[in-house]
Design goal:
about 20% strand; about 350 residues
């Protein structure tokens, strides 16, 4: 049969038996549980801190230290294409986040010749192929080509991101993070916030959307991926420009994000009740809540009814109350909560 298919359009077909017998290398993670290999799209409104975020990630990865202050990452070569910044600003930002000496193999490009984007990315990845390199492209808008004749905007967007993904896929274990903007309109699905057509997000392996109110240092990053679990995580932008997890690990940051979402716009007593329920993913009963919050049974039941009706908590069975969601996380390394965030220590033009 295989000989008969050699010249067939089905020549590359494989059987389920063959596929199940194969052994593939595990997925390589830039940030365990959050950013896997391949093409990652990081989208956020302008001037919200996304360039600070990828700079901090680049420093952490080049140093083999701590991403977001608490997640241990492997050392790898990093190329940051800062196409909207110059050397002066990059130096200022590095010094602001505490970098005083070179953190491993970290390189910068602020200009890419027209028509040379893909060859530039490929050359760096090929140079360090065995060390699973990371490239950051900031921003996609600086690399977006015009649509070809008779090509729709969707086709142009998908062609562009597919070409970028192909560069990362050609170097197994490598990662390409592309910074992009979000649209102004609000959307219930965070993926719909990505600016442009669905062709941009559709071609990416992982999409991250960062949301932060102006003048507020707290933010939520929502993630969906082919290789990492979906989740939303609470972050804080400190005065130096470093993005830090709200918690020791992703699970705590997910709990903080859930608490922020379910207590937004409510009074102190209702917020206390929701926070207490969120501390018990297995569920908690009204009598236990009354004792924990020093409230009488009637008041607790009233708040529970209001919180359930507003979908701030769930009531899966009679008398039992649980958080709205239990964010499922991929396997993570052991938490390392030493509060060390000094990145100099163990934090360690387009294509033709």
């Amino acid at each position: 049969m295989s000989e008969q298919l050699e010249d067939s359009r089905l020549g590359a077909m494989v059987s389920a038996k063959w596929l199940l017998a194969q052994r593939f290398p595990p997925v390589e993670y830039v940030v365990p549980g959050l950013i896997p290999e391949g093409l990652t799209l990081l989208a956020a409104p302008p001037k919200i801190g996304k360039s600070w975020m990828v700079l901090g990630l680049g420093v952490a990865c080049a140093a083999g230290g701590m991403a977001f202050g608490h997640i241990k990452v492997d050392e790898r070569p990093v190329l940051y294409l800062a196409l909207e910044d110059g050397h002066r600003r990059l130096q200022s930002r590095l010094r602001s986040i505490g970098v005083t000496s070179s953190p491993g193999t970290l390189h910068f490009l602020t200009v890419v010749q027209p028509g040379a984007m893909l060859p530039t990315l490929s050359e760096f990845m090929d140079l360090y192929a065995e060390r699973h390199p990371l490239v950051v492209l900031d921003t996609l808008g600086r690399a977006m080509p015009p649509a070809s004749p008779n090509e729709t905007t969707y086709q142009r967007d998908y062609r562009t991101t597919s070409a970028l993904k192909s560069v990362a896929d050609a170097c197994p274990g490598s990662s390409l993070i592309v910074v992009h903007h979000t649209r102004k309109a609000e959307s219930a699905d965070f993926l719909d916030a990505v600016s442009g057509t669905q062709g941009i997000a559709g071609a990416a392996d992982t999409v991250m959307v960062l949301r932060r109110e102006r003048q507020d240092h707290s933010a939520i990053v929502s993630v969906t991926s082919r290789d990492a679990q979906e989740g939303s995580y609470s972050l804080t932008l400190d005065s130096s420009g470093l993005w830090l997890l709200d918690g020791c690990d992703l699970e705590e940051a997910a709990n903080a994000a859930r608490t922020n979402a379910t207590t937004q716009g409510v009074g102190d007593r209702m917020a206390e009740l929701v926070v207490e329920v969120n501390r018990h993913p297995e569920g908690i009963r009204s009598a236990e809540l009354a004792a924990a919050l020093h409230m009488d049974d009637a008041t607790v039941r009233r708040y529970l009814r209001r919180a359930t009706d507003a979908s701030r908590i769930l009531n899966p069975s009679r008398g039992l109350y649980t958080p709205v969601t239990s964010v499922t996380l991929s396997q993570l390394p052991e938490p390392e909560c030493d509060n060390e965030t000094d990145v100099t220590r163990p934090l360690g033009g387009w294509v033709a």
